[in-house]
């Protein structure tokens, strides 16, 4: 099976930074950009240069620091935005300007108080203007998810004619269902006559919790680039999460004809860096990088994982840079998990002694959410100097 490379456009530093409370200073953006480069993303969208002098400086610094990825700055379809973005990215080894405008009738009427014809002209002029500065111009058709598909075909055709190298099809409001989204992307491939002159990108938001599903539908219907953020942060309910898309492609490596150049071993570290620097905790049940993503707490699951990890895990945590899965002891845990954790502390009980100790453990566990190693040591009878006192023999 010949595989198609899926380009990873990371917008953690732009759309991700639009999350309330996520604001980064220049040093923080540079530190995260270096980690994204290490992670192996293809494009770093470093910010929206005209939005503030601070963001201009951050994009400029990221552009002059990063050497192995394209560095991109966002603009509206306005000359002053494009001038400013170019000034910020001009020292990048691989500079890209990302410009665009609303494509849905809702945006055209209520955001721009304009008409399709006028908006189309602005789109074309913006791409042509950005092209004077850089070869690599990405065009976004904002709110494409709710846009009329024939108008979208026209807008994308004209943007490519004007010189766009990448066309970004965003589901800005996270409105689309996976099947409909896939049909929309396929429709573009079948109806935009010059579509093969540009790379098609999908940019999905998570308002219905469908961003990853939609992004996968996008690539299954021809898109070659995905726009994602670490931990899925972003406007409102966030963007498609990088780790989910990359690990879905990785997990289905034998049946899906795609690959990415992401170094999966860097995923967990990147997730935690973004969380700490932005001050946004990762929800415990977050797919791939949540604190519970590789934790097992019920007896049946623990027994299964201890017998063989694959019984309850589809991903080896080592692949994302985590040492091991976690066996969490709670009142729902079984003897297998208790024995496993005692063994890790160097304690090996006979079957009878384990049965007796298990009852004591359950009484304690009913009083607490989680039994940690320190609790276990006290229960089993470790001394302060960590030598085992004679409790076990009295069981
Ligand atoms: O969601 C969106 O439409 C965007 C564009 C600015 C690309 O973030
Ligand atoms: Zn967005």
Automatic annotation (TrEMBL):
Tell me which domain of life the UniProt entry assigns to the organism this sequence originates from.
Bacteria
**Any GO BP:** L-leucine biosynthetic process
User: Which GO MF terms are attached to this record?
Assistant: 2-isopropylmalate synthase activity
Q: Write down the EC number.
A: 2.3.3.13
Q: Which CDD domains match?
A: DRE_TIM_IPMS (cd07940)
Main EC class of this protein? Answer: transferase
* Residues annotated as domain Pyruvate carboxyltransferase: 6-268
Sorted alphabetically, the keyword list is: Amino-acid biosynthesis, Branched-chain amino acid biosynthesis, Leucine biosynthesis, Manganese, Transferase
Protein known as: 2-isopropylmalate synthase
């Amino acid at each position: 099976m010949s595989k198609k490379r899926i380009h990873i456009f990371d917008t953690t530093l732009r759309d991700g930074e639009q999350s309330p409370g996520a604001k980064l200073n220049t040093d923080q953006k540079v530190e995260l950009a270096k980690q994204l480069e290490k992670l192996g993303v293809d494009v770093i969208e470093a910010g929206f240069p005209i939005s503030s002098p601070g963001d201009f400086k951050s994009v400029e610094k990221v552009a002059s620091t990063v050497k192995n990825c394209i560095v991109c700055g966002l603009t509206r379809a306005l000359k002053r935005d494009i001038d400013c973005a170019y000034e910020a990215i001009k020292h990048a080894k691989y500079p890209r300007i990302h410009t665009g405008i609303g494509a849905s009738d809702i945006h055209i009427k209520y955001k721009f108080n304009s008409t399709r014809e006028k908006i189309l002209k602005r789109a074309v002029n913006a791409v042509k203007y950005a092209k004077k500065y850089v070869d690599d111009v990405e065009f976004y058709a904002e709110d494409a998810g709710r846009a009329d598909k024939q108008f979208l075909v026209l807008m994308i055709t004209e943007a490519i004619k004007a010189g766009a190298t990448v066309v970004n099809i965003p589901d800005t409001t996270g409105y689309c269902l996976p099947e409909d989204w896939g049909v929309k992307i396929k429709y573009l491939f079948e109806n935009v006559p010059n579509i093969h002159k540009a790379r098609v990108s999908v940019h999905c938001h998570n308002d219905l919790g469908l961003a990853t599903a939609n992004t996968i539908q996008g690539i299954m219907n021809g898109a070659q680039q995905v726009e994602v953020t670490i931990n899925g942060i972003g406007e409102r309910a966030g963007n498609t999460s990088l780790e989910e898309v990359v690990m879905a492609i990785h997990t289905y490596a034998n049946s899906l004809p795609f690959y990415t150049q992401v170094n999966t071993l860097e995923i967990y570290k990147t997730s935690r860096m973004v969380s700490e620097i932005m001050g946004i905790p990762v929800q415990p049940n977050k797919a791939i990088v949540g604190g519970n993503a590789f934790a097992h707490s019920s007896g049946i699951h623990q027994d299964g994982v201890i017998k063989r990890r694959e019984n309850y895990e589809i991903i080896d945590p080592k692949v994302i840079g985590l040492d091991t899965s976690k066996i969490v002891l709670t009142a729902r845990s079984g003897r297998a998990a208790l024995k496993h954790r005692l063994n890790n502390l160097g304690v090996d009980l006979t079957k009878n002694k384990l049965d007796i100790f298990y009852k004591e453990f359950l009484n304690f566990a009913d009083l607490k959410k989680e039994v940690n190693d320190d609790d276990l040591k006290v229960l089993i009878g470790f001394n302060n100097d960590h030598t085992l006192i004679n409790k076990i023999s009295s069981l």
